[in-house]
């Protein structure tokens, strides 16, 4: 693999390196700072934009000797919040900037809502970025992580943004080693370790999170290998469409699963919404319009193309679109509420599979837990 220092000279847009881990405390920030010192020793202009040490002595010590860009202080609800000073980074324009905690939500009034959007602006300006993120914040996996840890995932980064990294480094650590680090006070300051054990840092949770992190790293590598192959030699569907409705909860789950499937196969994908007369923009309820817009936004963030198809017969409209767009895989969602219609009445599925359409495609029905 080409060293990050060599990549820096390759193109005008900045390069992105992401350190990925299964949980806090595996050593992502430590590795990021260690690399910064290595680059500095080679004469590379590296500066720290945001580095979150969580009070860890080893990590704080590594900050010494790395030029730091002072944070932008925002006062919100009587509290001082330190944020990345995007304008100052753009003004200084170092060759490389360290931006920790990629999934962070910026304070109100910031130029961008999310820190990953700040990073995107830096990359567009030709500044390379080294960053870090935990597996639970990757959007396509957040629902699964929520089920594992029995808690909602509040901050998310689009998978498409993570997978575009020029280098993705999986920082692995056994669950036993991580739990030992917590016991020794190397992950959290005194008083927080017991709280962590009772919630996120349970051994069975960590094992599953480690599995997800390993799978994601392998998935990114597989996709890149697939993209290097000629189209005829690629394995899996080349163009995927997922049919969504105004049901936002089910739609988000479907979009994340489809984006993950498309990435694994190196395929293009799109979210398709069949707009019947009952859902005309002039008559549809405002709440349903808002749900639909949220789904369109999420699909675009994850790299999907959004298609609105007017039509009264959903099956016929989808089939015509499949023919026109040469879709190779159509994804439908199945919830507990819709199982009866899908598999007993089977109207939509029967129409899709019994039609005399000329373009062959596969049909995948995903069951929501």
Strand content: 15-25%
Alpha-carbon Rg, integer? 23 Å
Structural class: alpha/beta
Low-confidence stretches: 339-345
CATH topology tier name of the largest domain: Rossmann fold
In CATH terms, the superfamily of the largest domain is: P-loop containing nucleotide triphosphate hydrolases
Rounded mean pLDDT is 84
**The biggest beta sheet, please?**
5 strands, parallel
Indicate the percent of residues in helices: 40-55%
N- to C-terminal separation? Answer: 39 Å
Q: Summed up, what is this model?
A:
By secondary structure, the chain is an alpha/beta fold. The chain has 15 helices and 12 strands.
Description:
The radius of gyration is 23 Å and the shape is elongated. Helix content is 42%, strand content 18%. The chain is α/β, with parallel strands linked by helices. The chain has a five-stranded parallel beta sheet, sandwiched between helices. It folds into two domains: 4-226, P-loop containing nucleotide triphosphate hydrolases (Rossmann fold); 233-367, Rossmann fold (3-Layer(aba) Sandwich), CATH 3.40.50. Strand 3 and strand 4 form a beta hairpin.
Question: Which descriptors would you attach to this protein?
Answer:
Rossmann fold, 5-stranded parallel β-sheet, 2 domains, elongated, 18% strand, 15 helices, alpha/beta
Write the layout of secondary structure elements.
Layout: H1 4-7, E1 16-21, H2 28-41, E2 46-50, H3 57-63, E3 72-76, E4 79-83, H4 86-92, E5 96-99, H5 115-124, E6 128-134, H6 142-149, H7 159-163, E7 167-170, H8 175-183, H9 193-197, H10 203-228, E8 239-244, H11 248-265, E9 268-275, H12 286-301, E10 305-310, H13 314-325, E11 329-334, H14 339-345, H15 347-354, E12 362-367
Parallel strand pairs: 1-6, 1-7, 2-5, 5-6, 8-9, 8-11, 9-10, 11-12
Antiparallel strand pairs: 3-4
């Amino acid at each position: 693999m080409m060293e990050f220092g060599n990549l820096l000279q390759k193109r005008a847009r900045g390069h992105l390196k992401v350190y990925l881990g299964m949980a806090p405390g595996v050593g992502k920030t430590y590795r990021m700072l260690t690399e910064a010192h290595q680059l500095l020793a080679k004469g590379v202009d590296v500066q720290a934009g945001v580095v979150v040490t969580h009070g860890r002595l080893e990590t704080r010590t590594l900050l010494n000797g790395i030029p730091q860009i002072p944070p932008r202080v925002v006062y919100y609800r009587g509290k001082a919040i330190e944020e990345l000073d995007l304008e100052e980074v753009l003004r200084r324009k170092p060759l490389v900037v360290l931006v920790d905690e990629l999934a962070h939500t910026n304070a109100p009034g910031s130029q961008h809502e999310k820190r990953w959007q700040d990073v995107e602006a830096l990359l567009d300006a030709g500044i390379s970025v080294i960053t870090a993120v935990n597996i639970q914040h990757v959007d396509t996996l957040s629902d699964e992580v929520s089920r594992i840890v029995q808690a909602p995932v509040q901050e998310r980064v689009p998978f498409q943004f993570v997978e575009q990294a020029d280098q993705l480094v999986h920082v692995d650590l056994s669950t036993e080693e991580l739990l030992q680090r917590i016991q020794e006070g190397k992950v959290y300051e005194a008083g927080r370790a017991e709280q962590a054990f009772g919630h996120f840092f349970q051994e069975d949770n960590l094992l599953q999170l480690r599995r997800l992190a390993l799978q994601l790293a392998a998935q990114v590598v597989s996709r890149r290998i697939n993209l290097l192959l000629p189209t005829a030699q690629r394995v899996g569907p080349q163009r995927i469409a997922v049919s969504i409705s105004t049901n936002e909860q089910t739609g988000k789950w479907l979009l994340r699963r489809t984006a993950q499937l498309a990435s694994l196969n190196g395929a293009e994908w799109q979210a398709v919404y069949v707009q019947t007369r009952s859902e005309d923009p002039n008559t549809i309820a405002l709440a349903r319009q808002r749900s639909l817009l949220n789904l369109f936004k999420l699909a675009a963030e994850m790299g999907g193309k959004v298609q609105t198809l007017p039509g009264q017969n959903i099956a016929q409209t989808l089939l015509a679109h499949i023919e026109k767009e040469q879709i190779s895989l159509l994804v439908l969602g199945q919830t507990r509420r819709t199982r009866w219609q899908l598999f007993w009445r089977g109207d939509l599925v029967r129409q899709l599979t019994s039609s005399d359409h000329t373009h062959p495609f596969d049909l995948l029905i995903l069951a929501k837990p």
